[in-house]
Write a structure and sequence with these properties.
CATH topology of one domain: Thrombin, subunit H
Distance between the termini: 44 Å
Structural class: alpha+beta
CATH architecture of one domain: Beta Barrel
Low-confidence stretches: 98-107
Mean pLDDT: 90
Order of helices and strands: HHHHHHHEEEHEEEEEEEEEEEEEHH
Strand order of the largest sheet: 11-10-14-15-16-13-12
Shape: globular
CATH class of one domain: Mainly Beta
Number of strands: 16
CATH superfamily of one domain: Trypsin-like serine proteases
Length: 363
Amino acid sequence: MTLTGPQYRKLRDALVEAFPSQTRLAELVKFQFGENLNTLAMGDDLNAIAFRLIQHTEAHGWTDKLIAGAREANPGNPSLFIVAQEVNLAISLPSQLSKVGGLERIIKKTNRFLDVNTWREKLGIIEAQVCRIEITKNNNFQSFGTGFLIAPNVVITNYHVIEPVISEQATPNNVILRFDYKKLPEGKVINPGTEYRLFKDDWLIDQSPYVETSLPTLDELDYALLRVDGVPGEEPVAKNSVPDTPERGWISLPKQPYYQFLPDTPLLIVQHPKAQPLKLAFDTEAIIDINENGTTVKYKTNTEPGSSGSPCFDINWNLVALHHSGDPSYNPAYNAGSPFSAICARLEQQGLLEDLLRGEAMW
């Protein structure tokens, strides 16, 4: 990877902003890459040291790993996100969101302004909380889906994603929850990801199967709550525990009892389409309608196979739905999900909502 002049400056400034002392930068280099900063880059001030560190990584062919490792150690830093985005190591933003001036044109009267850095920072945090679900069936066929943390050790996905395990077409041991998977467009894997497994025998906390009708009930919302072996939400994103690295965290369930899906308003979906690294799909006039009992919302935001189980957000990164399917045969075609107002209502009936909202691991 060879950086352009502007990218070089952005990366230097981002490193100084994200690791604002020589000690912090040295910890990043040592814990993430096993290298000694003083050996790689000497200088009179932090700007000079960061500059020479980039010089060294470019000369030795691991600038991409430097960027990925820095983001792991500080996933919410918007400056690092911008650099990673430019070199295709972060979720790609739609063109209308890639520049500061682009946001204002897409905001509706009900949501007039966004703080760009806050918006990017939130996306960077969410990126670490969404995982690719990999299932190897008994016949060695692999299937993929998407899931995300809603508590320190609880991942939610679609029932139909995990159905092969429920129906014993696959064993729980053959399920991988892979966070942080990143690769370059040409196929080079920068980070194979952090793997978690399902928790022993007691891995299925709750389930609500799917039904192929336009009016599902609260017991037909196509979701499953998975108990993880480990507590990924309370562990740092950085593999080697760089000091002061924030915890991975989890996506908060909606605090409002009901979200109003207004027609032609935005919907964002963070997903693993076709088992690729995380992608962001965005439509500024996404919402089509919600069915009469509030159990299915239809929208125009793009998805592909592997996207099932993805989190759907409003423009301010509030969780509003769980994506589950699409209907290409319908004209016009649409995608659909289960509103979290309905999911939370069922979780409350099951006696689970209070525990999930408490923000503690569920054993």
